[in-house]
From TrEMBL:
GO terms for molecular function: ATP binding; ATP hydrolysis activity. Keywords: ATP-binding, Nucleotide-binding. CDD domains: ABC_DR_subfamily_A. Gene3D superfamilies: P-loop containing nucleotide triphosphate hydrolases (3.40.50.300). It comes from the Bacteria. It comes from Mucilaginibacter myungsuensis. This is ABC transporter ATP-binding protein. Pfam families: ABC_tran. The lineage of its organism: Bacteria, Pseudomonadati, Bacteroidota, Sphingobacteriia, Sphingobacteriales.
Length: 252
């Protein structure tokens, strides 16, 4: 029988920041199927960004393996990079360039040919409603406009997996709707979404698979429906509190 390759397959992952045990990972295992809308949730400091950074090869794990579409992240960075898009929490764009110039730059960085860069830039400027400001410097933009440029850059090369670390933080309702609807549209065409956020009502609209993380451990992972049912909770926010408690995570 043919085995099904996962979009993300993490085996026995071990990681610790030197001098900081707060979110160390020990023998972590996680699988995300192709086509899933996967959400990773947990209190501040749980390790969500760290795990995203390990999955995308930005941070090297101490042990274990991470594979994207069956290709190990370690040692295959170039090949893997083209397979996934990353929309980081901190803007990953050139503020002094325009959205058009940013998209052209990152398109070239991904090795797209000139015709494809032109076509994708035009498409994404339209989808993100940035055509009118295509030639203005990004540093003049509102937070919501910068988020849309950040997202467009992350998907310029049509990746099959997109990592999104709080992609809507600080945006207005209009931008949130536009971003969520665009992500749902990409997913309906087969793109796997790996997403994290503290916006749990938005997450509930977006995600079908949920992993709850606390202090470096995945404390639950299943479909959203199964988790709500199993823990007898009404929504993702109630489930979050049920699984992670109400205590602040203020240890430094
Ligand atoms: N470069 C670093 N060096 C040492 N410790 C770090 C580093 N980056 C993060 N940490 C620590 O690792 C833990 C996990 O941080 P991380 O940013 O992954 O959590 P998070 O779940 O994404 O939190 P948030 O919801 O606040 O974004 C925290 O205790 C944080 O202080």
């Amino acid at each position: 029988m043919e085995s099904v390759v996962s979009a993300v397959h993490i085996s026995n992952l071990t990681f610790r920041y030197p001098g900081n045990d707060a979110a160390s990972f020990t023998d972590m295992n996680l699988q995300v199927n192709k086509g899933d809308r996967f959400g990773l949730f947990g209190p501040n400091g749980a390790g969500k960004t760290t795990l995203m950074n390990i999955m995308t090869g930005l941070i090297k794990a101490d042990g274990g393996t991470v594979a994207l579409n069956g290709v190990k992240v370690d040692g295959h960075k170039f090949r893997v990079n083209h397979m996934f898009g990353f929309v980081p929490q901190d803007f990953s764009l050139y503020q002094e360039l325009s959205p058009k110039e940013n998209l052209e730059f990152f398109g070239a960085w991904y090795g797209l040919d000139r015709q494809t860069i032109k076509q994708r830039t035009d498409e994404l400027l339209t989808v993100m409603d940035l055509q009118d400001v295509r030639n203005k410097q990004v540093q003049l933009f509102s937070g919501g406009m910068k988020r849309r440029v950040n997202l467009a850059i992350g998907v310029i090369h049509n990746p099959s997996i997109i990592f999104l670390d709080e992609p809507t933080v600080g945006v207005d309702v209009q931008t949130r709707h536009a971003i969520v609807n665009y992500l749902l549209e990409l997913n309906s065409k087969g793109t796997t979404l790996i997403y994290t956020s503290h916006q749990l009502s938005e997450a509930q609209d977006l995600c079908n698979q949920v992993a709850m993380m606390d202090q470096g451990k995945i404390v639950a992972h299943d479909s959203l429906d199964n988790l709500l049912h199993a823990h007898e909770q009404e929504d993702l926010e109630a489930l979050f509190l049920n699984l992670t408690g109400k205590k602040f995570r203020d240890d430094v």
